[in-house]
Structures are given as C-alpha cells and as structure tokens.
Amino acid sequence: MSYDVDSLDNTDPGPDAIVSTVLGSARPGSIVSLHRGHSGTVTAWPGIVRGLASRGLRPVTLTDLSSAG
Question: Which of 17, 33, 40, 41 could form a disulfide with 3 if both were Cys (CB 3.0 to 4.6 A apart)?
C-alpha cells in the first residue's frame, strides 16, 4: 500500500497548511502520509479529524486498513 495524499507536513509548513493540504486532497479510501515528530502535525490533527468527520469519513491506522481487506 502506498499513500495518495502527501500532507507535506515534513516540510513544517504550519498546522493550517497541513489541514488545508489534507482536506483538499483526501477522498474516501485515501491514505494520507503524516509524520510523527513534527509539532505542526500534532497541532493539525484535530482539524484534520473534524474535517474528515464533516464528510462522513474517519481516520484509521494502516494496520486497521490492511486487516479490513
């Protein structure tokens, strides 16, 4: 499996940019690349989850996704 949405969070663009990038590209079934260890990613996470939820989507881990198949 490979991701289809690159959040670009590893470039540290700031939380608002990360949320915008993810929500602008995420679709049902998308795999989003996010990196641990970047403060902007941690700060962006609640906004990403809220934005996905407003579309009826929810985040799952890659492990959950691969076991669902």
Answer: 33
Residue by residue, pLDDT tens for the chain (69 residues) are 689 999 999 999 999 999 999 999 999 989 999 998 899 999 999 999 999 999 999 998 878 878 876
Element housing 62 (H / E):
helix 62-68
Query: Residue with structure tokens 């590209």?
Result: 25
Going from N- to C-terminal start, the domains of the chain cover 5-68
For 1-69, strand residue ranges (E) read 5-6, 32-33
Q: How far apart are CA 12 and CA 22, in angstroms?
A: 14
This prediction's pTM: 0.88
Q: Are strands 32-33 and 5-6 parallel, antiparallel or unpaired?
A: parallel
